[in-house]
Amino acid sequence: MGLRTLIILLIASLSGVLHVKGQNSQQWRDSLAVINKQISQNPYSSDLYLRKAAVNIELQQWEYAHKTYSDILTKEPNNLAALFYRAFVNGKMRRYDLAGSDYETFLTLAPTNIEARLGLAYTLQKRGKRLEALDQYNTIVEQHPDSAVAYASRACLEEEMVLLDAALFDWEKAIALNSSNNDYILSKANLLLKMGKKQKARECLDVLLDRGVARADIEELLKACR
User: For the segment 28-53, what is each residue's pLDDT rounded down to a tens digit?
Assistant: First the structure.
């Protein structure tokens, strides 16, 4: 699964932080117009600026969001929300060095924040610094030993580094902590196939079938287990 799985895990962990709401593009644009009007009628308010940038993110207006977060940080260098989301926006703009710098600054202020450390580890991977990324994932596991996402994220990198036994251990830990997550079980099945353990991979797929996963969705993996 590799980076694709890691991206899914990161987005999942960020979804609770971003407080994503179900609005369409026009509704978000309407919200932005209201917030911009409020900003024009008020002295500086970090809350209004943060709300504006959040809508910019929803509309994928990365440059506008980045400028707004930078404006906040000019006035409030230690504003954690602005630091975190500017790092996130830098990542969306593929400015991984800048994203990493923001995450590092954030972590000096909140060293146990799992979302920021996941973000930092991901930017390190994108920059080809796998060993440094692995150090970050090790720190995440140490700080959050009861987090399934921590083990699953590390497993993704370990698979990339062909540390397959370590990755299997981490997928099993992730499943033990969140046994209802079908994606973790699917990832474990994929890994077992890479390791030539077809019977054990089939056992994972049988669990998914028992849970109602459509056979057609995993047919290729089932064939690989024969």
Answer: 777 777 777 777 778 788 888 898 99
Say what the pTM is. Answer: 0.83
Q: What is the 3-state secondary structure (H, E, C) of 95-113?
A: CHHHHHHHHHHHHHHCCCC
Q: Which residues contact 167 (CB under 8 A, 6 or more apart)?
A: 155, 156, 158, 159, 191
Tens of pLDDT, residues 81-110:
999 999 999 999 999 999 999 999 999 999
Cβ atoms of 85 and 68 within 8 Å: the answer is no
| Distance of alpha carbon 115 from alpha carbon 123, whole angstroms | 12
The two three-digit tokens of residue 63, written as one number: 């440059």
C-alpha–C-alpha distance, residues 135 and 30, integer Å: 44
**Residue 44: how many CB atoms within 10 A of its CB?**
11
Q: Are 90 and 66 within 8 A, CB to CB?
A: yes
Give me the amino acid identity at 92: K
CB 5 within 8 A of CB 183: yes
Which two three-digit tokens encode residue 29?
């644009």
The tokens for 57 are 């993110």
- 85-102 CB burial, b ≥16 within 10 A, e <16: bbbbbbbeeebbebbbbb
| Residue 146 DSSP SS3 | coil
Per DSSP, the three-state class of 19 is coil
Q: What share of the chain is helix, strand, coil (3-state, %, to 5)?
A: 80, 0, 20
